[in-house]
Amino acid sequence: MLEATDVWKVYETRGVETVALQGVNLVIDEGEFTALAGPSGSGKTTLLNLFGALDVPTRGTIHLEGQELSTLSSAQLAHLRLQKLGFIFQAYNLIPVLSARENVEFVMELQGVPAAERQERAMAMLAEVGLGDMADKRPMEMSGGQQQRVAVARAIVSRPRVVLADEPTANLDSKTAEKLLDLMQEMNQRHHVTFLFSTHDPMVIEKSRRTVRLRDGQVVDDELRAA
Amino acid sequence: MSLEFRLAKRNIGRNLRRTGLTVAATVFAVFLVVVFVAMAAGMHEKMIEDGVRIHSGHLQVSGKDYLKKRTLEQFVDLDAELLTLLEQAPGALGVAPRVIGFGLASKGASTQGVAIFGVDPQREGTVSSLPTRVVSGVFVDGEGRGIVLGERLARNLGAEIGDELLLYSVAYSMETAYDLFTVVGTLRLPEPALERTLAVISLADAQAFFAYGDRVSEIAVLAKDAGHVDALEADLHAVLAKRGGPELELHTWAEVMPELKQFIFIDDAGMYIMLAILVVVVAFGILNTILMSVLERTRELGVMLALGLKPGSIFRVVYMESMLLASIGLVIGLALAIPVVLYFQGHPIPMSEELKGAAQIIAMEPVITFKLKPLNPLGSMITILGVAALAALYPALKASRARPVDALRSL
Ligand SMILES: Nc1ncnc2c1ncn2[C@@H]1O[C@H](COP(=O)(O)OP(=O)(O)OP(=O)(O)O)[C@@H](O)[C@H]1O
Ligand SMILES: [Mg+2]
A193 to chain B nearest CA, in Å? Predict the structure, then answer.
């Protein structure tokens, strides 16, 4: 489903080169619930951005469902993100001027889902993440955990193939983080959506079924856990 | 309601103080633009009306080259038929033939240079305000060689009503012309220079004095509607063309009083430059507001781009924000300015003493008048929206060109 082959990423800022990834090889299969672990600066965000078609590798290739991303135009990449990928970021995920329901509807609206169906799906998804009564609240009026739940709902509701989440629990306390992980797991199973998320948090790593460890831009460990 | 419009609308509601300040600046600018343009329009129209009523009429028929030379050699052969034709032109309110010459007036030891206006006592009032400007005595009536003097001229000559004075000049025949006239009245004019030299006699007396036969120097025509002088001009051209005979000229007030036309042009230019500066200031206000809000939203724009919102949509959202701000300011500004202007259009403001002097120089009544032409609010609207469109260009481009990875990083 997702495949990185000998991926290198070198950033250059004012003449200084930073090697963020050095020859990463990684395959993510359909239905996985996989954590990308590693210390700060190890390249987790960089790798997620490459898988998310938000950035291009300096060398090597990324395939999504057999399609090589470097062959696509930026418009095609945008279309691919819209149709096949769901995103959850670390914080400030939601569009502040839209209500919870409108945020959940956002991607569907871009996909061209008709208004009635969109509303129905958004309300159902908000109920699933336990926020049925928060539909009309703006992000400012919700707690960090509630906001991340809305972000999960938004990432799932557009029926993507893969959800990429960059440290989705980083700004949450451990109890809220655990609940969010449980929710993501539930979604992974119920909706058969592949999840790839980055984290430093041992508790979150515990909850994953597969853990890929990065250090200095290289995969140093790849471990499967019994379900 | 489209997603883009909803985002734009809510974004400008986000920082109410900043939005309020920008809107207030726009309101202020729109208000000033509408009021100043209306005031200029009102004043200029009044200047033209007053000027037209004192000298020229809206249109003037004269002999070839009269405007350039202004001597008795350039004349119109006046016959009843021409007068009737001119009077019957649909747009004409009044028609007044005049003989204009220059000479000397003497009373006792004092002599003054004078502009001699020979006017038709019945017709002059239909075109100019001369008969109504008499302040003592009466206007000429064609009987007994009466003469009406400008008040200052009368004072300089030491002439009073009932006095006789001697007028000298050179007649059309090149012989010396001289005759005695009896002062029957004095008149006051807003233009001191003219008041010092004007001497009005009847048309018949002037034709006799200058040995001019049936000739006149000019025929002034007043239009019924100052807005339709062009149509009247075309009609009169047709009348003159059909008549044949010696070549006659038709001139508009702007040609007869080029200094007034020029004054209006310079006055307008000064005003528009000032208003343009004001509008540019407002443009930078809008630019600043939109740019700040875009820079504050870098992260959010990154999220939207990552989720699949197209750069074109982001461009339109930012654009709509600018247009919305400008539109709100525009609507409030017009709602405030239009009633104010309409009120003063009905209630002209008397000028202060200092301004009165200035008004006299250009021969106008000392009141400030307003006139709201449809082009004024329309032009303001187009200007403000155009400026907002330009001001939004840079922030909108900046917002839509952001790359999601960079935007997401800037927490
Ligand atoms: N835009 C950029 N320009 C220059 N260097 C960058 C850029 N983005 C990342 N880097 C560098 O690349 C390396 C990997 O960064 P990355 O953000 O992928 O790490 P991370 O594992 O996500 O870290 P964290 O846990 O702190 O989020 C770091 O050394 C970082 O400084
Ligand atoms: Mg990171």
Answer: 17
Integer angstrom CA distances of residue A75 from A72, A111, B261:
8, 14, 59
| Domain end position, chosen among B197, B232, B255 | B255
What local confidence, expressed as pLDDT, does residue B402 receive?
Answer: 82
Question: Does residue B322 carry a pLDDT above 80?
Answer: yes
Regarding whether B179 and B130 lie in a shared domain, the answer is yes
Q: What is the DSSP letter of B54?
A: I
Architecture of domain A2-222: 3-Layer(aba) Sandwich (3.40)
Clarify whether residues B357 and B305 are in a common domain. yes
Subunit contact B304:A49, Cβ cutoff 8 A: no
Rounded distance from Cα A53 to ligand 2 centre (Å): 16
Atom of ligand 1 nearest to the CA of A214: 21
**pLDDT at A165 (0 to 100):** 94
Name the residue at shortest CA distance from atom 12 of ligand 1.
A20
Confirm or reject: Cβ of A168 under 6 Å from ligand 1: no
Q: What is the pLDDT of residues B139-172, one digit of tens each?
A: 999 888 999 999 999 999 999 999 999 999 999 9
Number of domains in chain B: 2
Which residue is closest in CA terms to ligand 1's atom 18?
A: A43
Q: B362 falls in which pLDDT band (50, 70, 90)? A: low
**Ligand number, closest to the Cα atom of A213:** 1
Q: Do B167 and B292 share a domain, yes or no?
A: no
Q: Are residues B194 and B286 in the same domain?
A: no
Structure pTM? 0.79
Range of the structural domain that residue B153 is part of: 56-255
> Which protein residue's CA is at the shortest distance from atom 16 of ligand 1?
A43
Q: Is A43 in the pocket of ligand 1 (CB under 6 A)?
A: yes
Residue B231 predicted with pLDDT over 70: yes
pLDDT digits (tens, 9 = 90+) for B292-313: 999 988 888 989 989 988 889 9
Q: Per-residue pLDDT tens, chain A, 227 aa: give them.
A: 899 999 999 998 888 999 999 999 999 999 999 999 999 999 999 999 999 999 999 999 999 999 999 999 888 888 999 999 999 988 878 999 999 999 999 999 999 999 999 999 999 999 988 999 999 999 999 999 999 999 999 999 999 999 999 999 988 888 888 989 998 999 899 989 999 999 999 999 999 999 999 999 999 999 888 65
- At B375, give phi and psi (nearest 5°): -65, -25
Locate the domains of chain A by residue range.
Answer: 2-222
What is the amino acid identity at position B85? L
Give the closest-approach CA distance of B396 to chain A in angstroms: 18
Q: Are residues B28 and B69 in the same domain?
A: no
Compute the distance between CA of residue A161 and CA of residue B181 in angstroms, rounded to an integer. Answer: 110
Q: B300 and A81: CB-CB below 8 Å?
A: no
Contact call for residues A155 and A86 (beta carbons, < 8 A): yes
Same domain membership, residue B281 and residue B241: no
- Chain A interface disruption, residue of B304, B408, B409, B410, most A CBs within 10 A: B408
| Residue B102 and residue B172 share a domain | yes
Query: Which of B320, B331, B310 has its CA nearest to residue B5?
Result: B320
